[in-house]
Specification:
Elements (H helix, E strand, L loop, with lengths): L4 H4 L4 E4 L5 H12 L3 E6 L3 H10 L3 E5 L5 H15 L4 E4 L17 H32 L3 E6 L12 H21 L3 E8 L11 H10 L8 H13 L7 E4 L7
Parallel strand pairs: 1-2, 1-4, 2-3, 4-5, 5-6, 6-7
Helix pairs in contact: 2-8, 4-5, 5-6
């Protein structure tokens, strides 16, 4: 439901994809606490999304499958219609496949297409759909801000699979290209986390041990650590085209 128009003018609005758990949920909650109106999204977890929206002062939830073009259009239309504006787009939603890097036969064309559609095409399409509203934000409030959630696998030869790592490398380069194309009205940056402590990674014993022993920070990131990095990029009025590697310094070792 749209809020009181008198309140709307004081708000900045952020759409956070994949925001019912993990990094996305941490980002959404941090922005809500900072006074943003938040559009929550997930492919599944609708009950969780609605519950989260009810807990926040200004929030709605939209369910959409980002692999489907019509769903992407509907998500953006509903996000902008909720408050009549959009100031921030966080492309957090993504998918992965665990395939050993030397098992080339298992990295089928189907896997490549699935990961590319959600991890690269969907963010690009959402940015395209959001462009007009984000430029309007620059005219009336502050420059629009886009933050893509990438991965250290897009920077280093690591990751759950080669198709996944390549999709994140593509997202990183797309971030830089769009920063050039959309500035100065819209800033485009990315955060590239390493290991993040979530229920999904709790039993990744080798990775956990690696971060505890080799990373200068001696631990994996928390979702709140990544949310803080995202918030920093949003609040900057100058940074654009940056890929913020957030791996606790593991890349230095």
């Amino acid at each position: 439901m749209k809020t009181d128009p008198a309140i709307d003018r004081a708000l900045r609005v952020a759409l956070v994809t994949g925001s019912t758990s993990g990094i996305g949920a941490a980002i959404a909650r941090k922005l809500s606490r900072a006074g943003y109106a938040v559009v929550l999204h997930s492919r599944h977890s609708a009950q969780t999304g609605r519950a989260m929206a009810a807990e926040m002062k200004h929030a709605i939830y939209v369910q959409a499958d980002l692999a489907i073009e019509a769903d992407r259009v509907r998500l953006m239309n509903e996000a902008i219609a909720a408050w009549g504006q959009l100031d921030v787009l966080i492309n957090n939603a993504g998918i992965s496949k665990v395939i050993a890097h030397d098992d080339l036969a298992s990295a089928s064309s189907t896997v490549w297409h699935e990961l590319n559609e959600v991890n690269v095409v969907a963010p690009f399409h959402l940015i395209t759909l959001a462009e007009s509203a984000l430029r309007d934000a620059a005219r009336h409030r502050r420059a629009g801000s886009i933050v893509n959630i990438s991965s250290h696998a897009g920077i280093r030869p690591k990751g759950a699979s080669i198709p996944y790592a390549v999709s994140k490398a593509a997202l990183n380069h797309m971030t830089r290209l769009l920063a050039v194309s959309l500035g100065p009205d819209i800033r485009v940056n990315a955060v590239a986390p390493g290991l993040v402590d979530t229920p999904l990674t709790a039993d990744w014993t080798q990775a956990q041990a690696l971060w505890r022993t080799r990373a200068p920070m001696r631990r994996a990131a928390s979702p709140d650590d990544i949310a803080s990095a995202v918030a920093m990029l949003i609040e900057s009025d100058y940074l654009t085209g940056e890929i913020l590697l957030s791996d606790g310094g593991l890349n230095l070792t």
